[in-house]
Amino acid sequence: MKKLKTNNTGRMPLWQADLDWIQNAFTEPIMALVNELKIPSRYFMPITGCKVTKTEEIISMTSGWFWWAGEMLPVRALEPTKISSFTAPAVHLEKVIYYDQDGARNFIKADLTTESVSDVWQDDYILPKVVERFGSFTTGVHILPGARTLFDDIKLCTTDSESEWNTIYGVDPLDVSFKRIGRMVILRGAVFSQVESTPVTLGLPRPLGGWATLHHNTSDSDLKLCVTGEGGLSVEAHTGGAPLLVSLTGMMYMAEDPYITIPVDTNVIVCEQ
Questions:
Q1: In the prediction, which pLDDT does 221 show?
Q2: What is the DSSP string of 99-167?
Q3: How far apart are CA 67 and CA 110, in angstroms?
Q4: CATH class of the domain whose range is 166-258
């Protein structure tokens, strides 16, 4: 992480660029983390807070932080506002470029004359207001109840990116189904022993690296599965005695692409053009 290394042997001049360096030491890591954790296609999204509450009579929103086209900005709260005069009320967010007047000061020039400088403390923020949802807008963002925050997106990616069980049909003597959780492909079912089959295209997810070989050995059976890059599956199953069903439940491999089904957040409506 960046840090300003002071000179302990004597006086050290402090330049305005040094202050920028210190600021970046804090902002760069936070921005990098948010940018990495968020869904790449989301350019406008709540990071924290920004919870919209709507009843038949009022609408309100909590304060929070918002990812605004590559910039992280604070969002001011919207106090409970009556909506009886609106047909389809929505909270509209607009970026405000703001300079705190407490930062104003007089700059003393070399000739000892002074010049007032007021744009020292820049503190941009996002201001909410109630608007008609279907009005005409070219800037800003509408935010509705249920808008997903960064935490909600992370939860979708980690806990909700799970498929149903998909059954493989029409390949005797296989009785196999699979489920996807992220990159993980989990198999279940059983196959008859004393079987050696050639690869059959089954629509399995493509393995990471183009090929996956799975083994399951016990004192009574030896099972080998091969998943090809085209999603095919070949089986070798043997037992020491008479043919019997050999379970493959719990066998798994890593897929080349993760299974992520993240719906578009229709509660964040971008008006920017």
A1: 63
A2: EEGGG-EEEE-TTS-EEEE---EE--EEEEEEEETTS--SSSEEE-TT---HHHHHHHHHHS-BPPPEE
A3: 42
A4: mainly beta
CA-closest candidate to residue 128, choices 45, 61, 44, 53 = 61
- The DSSP symbol for 103 reads G
Query: In the chain, what is the greatest distance between 2 CA atoms, to the nearest angstrom?
Result: 104
Quick one: residue 146, left, alpha or beta (phi over 0 = left, psi -120 to 50 = alpha)? Answer: left
Strand 200-201 relative to strand 268-270, pairing: unpaired
Are 140 and 90 contacting, i.e. CB atoms less than 8 angstroms apart?
no
Residue 207: asked if its preceding bond is cis (omega within 30°), the reply is: no
**In this structure, what DSSP letter does residue 170 have?**
S
Cβ neighbour number for residue 147 with a 10 Å cutoff:
21
Domain boundaries, the chain: 1-37, 42-158, 166-258
pLDDT tens profile 5-15: 776 666 777 78
| CB count in 10 Å sphere of residue 92 | 22
- Predicted structure pTM score: 0.66
